[in-house]
Design goal:
mainly alpha, 372 residues, globular, 17 helices, binds magnesium ion
Length: 372
Amino acid sequence: MTMSLTVPPTIAVPALERRSRYTACLLGGAIGDALGAPVEFMSRQEILRRFGPGGIRDHASAYGRTGAITDDTQMTLFTAEGLLRAAAGGHPPGHRARVAEVAAAYQRWLLTQDEDPARHADAGGLLGIAALHSRRAPGTTCLAALRQVGARGSREIVVARGRSRNGEPGADLRAKNNSKGCGGVMRVAPAGLLLTGLIADEALLVREAFALGSDLAALTHGHPSGCLPAGVLAAVIALLVREVPLRDALARTKPVLATRADCEETLAAITAAERLASQGAANHDTLAQLGGGWVGEEALAISLYCALAAPDLESAVVLAVNHAGDSDSTGAITGNLCGAAAGMDALPVRWLEGLELDRTTRELALALCAVG
Ligand SMILES: [Mg+2]
């Protein structure tokens, strides 16, 4: 008898399940982003007038195609690429190196917004993908903050600056603005996916994922409510992949949030989402009490409400996009949360069909899974 026969066959099942959760987290985000894209700038009344009383429930045309992703997914993919480059680098992939590599990745995303794609046709990685060279209503804060960094030095300098300074990790890469737009939180799910595969101890994982998500958002958003919700999302995603229920994941993350300066606004938004979700079936009037989602703490709260109150991923994402707010971002974050919790079986096949860059999104999710 060989040793391999003594390995219980059940070991392969969690591995498959894990891949499914990673993939569904990023594809769920892309699906929510794409479903919300056509209605991002519509009031709820306009959405209902155009798509009927059930609102938008299938991909519709935006940016010249159906199933188009927006800046939310573009930047999520670049976050993943930066984290993967840090993991593959010839240096210890500590916190500072990860932040610096993602800062460099965001500079590459900026090139897709500002430059002729033909200049980068031979580039490796995401920068060489022509479909990513498209403006999908990018956040002005992200563009301005990244242009400021870019003006201060080349990609190499950005990376070196993030690695070599003493003091707070990546401190001098932080955005010099006071923005709390949701452009920070909408893109950090890969931070939770990466670290949950690398850090076994759960309390340490929550602290590290929170710090990474928050510091990645701080690359473009200087207000605490622009960064801290991103810390919460990264930590919660890390726990959801481990099959921790969402309410428990929040209970384990909020104490870490509570140690941060100026956390009150984000804490209050999360608490409101939890309270409203426990008050009965999911509905739009209740969701509207949480705001429009244009700022970080509201986008997080709306997404948490949808994920907590709706019975499944499909109804959560439909709820998250059919409101008079930042539909693609709340759809994306809700899709991240529900996908990480439920895996690929929860994603409606009709939403996967025709989804832009679905293969690239899958590949990056699986690469993050393989790091752990
Ligand atoms: Mg967007």
